[in-house]
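Dear support,

We are seeing what looks like truncated structure output for some complexes. This example has two components. We would appreciate it if you could run it in full and send us the complete token output so we can diff it against ours.
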Amino acid sequence: MINVKAVKKKQQIRHKKYMGEQIQAYLFLLPAIILFLLFRYYPIIEGFFISFFDIDIIHLPGKFSGFKNYVRAFSDPGFYNALGNNIRYVLYSILMTFWEPIVLAIMINEVKRGKTFYRMLYFLPAVAPGIAVAVLFRYIWQPDYGLANYIINFLGLPSQLWLNDVKQVYFCLNFPGMLLCGGMTMVIYLAAMQDVPQEQYEAAMLEGAGFFKRTWSIMLPQISNIIISMLILTIIAAFNEINKPMVMTGGGPAGSTESMIYYAYKQATDYLDYSYAIAMANIVFVIIFIVTAIQMKFQNND
Amino acid sequence: MLIMGIIFCCFGCSNNNEKKDNGSKNITITTWEKPLDDASDVTKAIYEAKMQRIRDKFPNVNIVDIADSGDSGYRQRYDKALMAGNAPTYYSRFSYTDIPTRIKNKTLADISEYVNKWELKKEDKVITQFDDAITSDDKWYAIPSEAYLQATLIHKGALRKSGVNVAKMPETWEEFSDLGQKVTDFSKPLIGYEIVGVNWTSWVYTAWVWSAGGDMVKTNDDSTYKITFNDEPGVDAACFLHDMIWKYKMTQKDILQDISKIYSDVKSGSVCFSWASIADFSNNDFEQYDLKMEDLSMMPMPVKDKSIKPPVLSGGEVYTFNPRATKEELDVAWDIVTYMNYDEDELKTQWKVNNDNKNCNIKMPGRKDLYKTKLDMLTFVPQKNKDELVDMGNNVIAEPFCPNWTELKSELNNPLQKIYLKENITRAEVKEILDECANSLYTKYPGSFKK
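Here is the complete output from our reference environment:
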């Protein structure tokens, strides 16, 4: 006969133990949660709050202005110019820097010997600080006596304006990334590729599938989650772009590389219009939030 | 981590309380004038000596000296500190052109009470070119610190390197472009005339509009301003700057470079003429880069034709005061600032020390009656350089500061870059681009700009 009381007592003990472990876990997480709330979420919420005021530095937050800053943003030609520039950043990032780590990872994955060596070879340049690379390429792209023009003159081609040409500037901004910064994401793709079961490749080879067929039909679908995640991160990074315009072009030539965050930054620094700057940063935040929501929906569907 | 954070917050709070409760006799003020750790020993020694004299003169004042990094983010640092309540009591980095915006944003103390009783001002011994910018509705919000002259810096060493014998410095655009073509050789590299771009594009352009006989803005009867950079002189100036890049090939094509690039090129002797000033170079620069004072010279802007008086742009920094400062702190800060920058004996002591240490500060002091004295006391500066500065002072024009001047300059940068970078642009296209910019400004700032 089952002793109901004893069973219930055991269940209570197990439940207590479980709750104890849960509380312990939350206590360990609590400092991180508090710091996260304080240094991540609080500034975001404060930013939204301030964007509805004409900020007064001496008597914060200033005079309530409602949606004035947002209405101003949506009627500001500079805002639309910056938005258009951000879309260009996204397109050029995808065209120039998104696919390259995938190709690199596929090639390294196929290598039988020296895989570690090639992985290190492509990874090491990615460790270089982005700002240092940007400053270096600023000099390489110098139109009067920079290295880029020296090389193409040597090949018999005419000098170019590079960063000073609105048609070439996005290529010049993304070229360093294509050359040097793919290593980080290459490692992530490589790890995902190495998780693909070998038996699937072997089975495909037995059926006469070549390299391209195996890659297209087996490998890429298996790592599609990673690819989509990286695509979303690329888009988010492109919308947050400020380093390249700040270091390499100052938003020029003629405002053609002024990203939304850089435009917002200039509103704050040149015009001391902090409220308007925060409003624009919030708009960028909403755009990125929507993109992230789409990513999560994709991942959930999978 | 949470506990550590709480502990540090307590320490922070307690430190602030100590500062405020530091005795009723002592007033504590904060400054951001201290040199950085990597400043030269000479600079630090000169500064410490000056601070010691101030401490001796004002024994009841506790001066908290903080080093500021001195980079271009100083405005944001100041505003952050103002919001946090720990901005300096007085501050000397703002250009006078910043003041109208700051008056609107109420980030400056009203010091009318002090200026209206100021004897030196009444005796007309204080420079006045910034007065309109630092006042509003008959109230004063700043006093001048120093004024600099900005026009054309000549590097004679670079001219010698070019191998061209320069008998006479160019005075007109024609002479300037003629010489510029001869001395330029980008393979060396040796640049004939170097300008600054990015956010400073319209700053250079302003002086060239004057040298074309024009103006950037003109005052209307109703105190608004008519935009005139799109008149014929403005178009001439833009076309000439464009031609210096493409036709005469004497100016760099990189119009995205900032002012630090010009300084580097002057130090390395790669530029013959540039939009710079001798005052931009410190003793450190002269020593580290083997730059010789004799090799640097200044001249006004070359002019379109000799009927135009060669202009020289004058800019400068002003002293502002913390709007959160108490009356006692403002009293003390005023006394210290006027002692440090306007007391004749103290100024002469500073200038003697500068001269002994070959510290080249040739900016015009706030005391206009003592400028010649200052220059005379800088015995290591060649007399020729001093005479040039005094001559240049004959047609000094202060950079305009009309309401929304900062916005005007900012809006004009992109159109000017468009003009400079299009190789085969026509005069009509230049006029159209400038007109479009002017119309945009009229629409955006109707309270400031009117046709």
